[in-house]
Amino acid sequence: WALVLAGVSDFYRPAEKLSLTQNLALTATGAIWTRWCLIIKPRNVLLAAVNFFLGCVGVVQVSRILTWQQSVKNGTAPEVIEQDAMDAVRTATGGIQENPEAASKNAIQ
């Protein structure tokens, strides 16, 4: 259950800090061992449950990573938008800092 809890705690981490290969490995491990636990004799349902949830956590994380990568590729990531906003603020305040008298005259008019 420790791997499942570690994966769940990663839900709070930003998607750009997660490893795609690690989470693909968790997904594959969960799927393979869940199947194996159900076909062996005697069936180990508790171990199958742990591995099932491990696979579910892996699928969620892989989905988050791929969604983040796609949003960055399309340029719609919040970080890209935030960076553009910060650049606009710097440009606007840069003009005021360079020539404060002209800026105050323009503001009054």
Strand content: under 5%
What is the CA-CA span between the terminal residues?
67 Å
Rg is: 25 Å
Counting DSSP E segments of at least 2 residues, the number of strands comes to: 0
Continuous helix count: 5
Structural class: mainly alpha
Written as H for each helix and E for each strand, in order along the chain, the element string is HHHHH
Q: Share of helix among residues? A: over 70%
Q: Judging from the principal axes of the Cα atoms, what is the shape?
A: rod-shaped
Care to describe what's here?
The protein contains five helices and no strands. The protein is an all-alpha fold and 109 residues long. It is rod-shaped and about 85 Å long.
List the helices and strands and how they pair.
Elements: H1 2-9, H2 20-39, H3 45-74, H4 78-98, H5 100-108
Helix pairs in contact: 1-3, 2-3, 4-5
Question: What is this structure, in a nutshell?
Answer:
The chain is mainly α and 109 residues long. It has helices spanning 2-9, 20-39, 45-74, 78-98, 100-108. The longest helix has 30 residues, at 45-74.
Please supply descriptive tags for the structure shown above.
single chain; 109 residues; mainly alpha; 81% helix
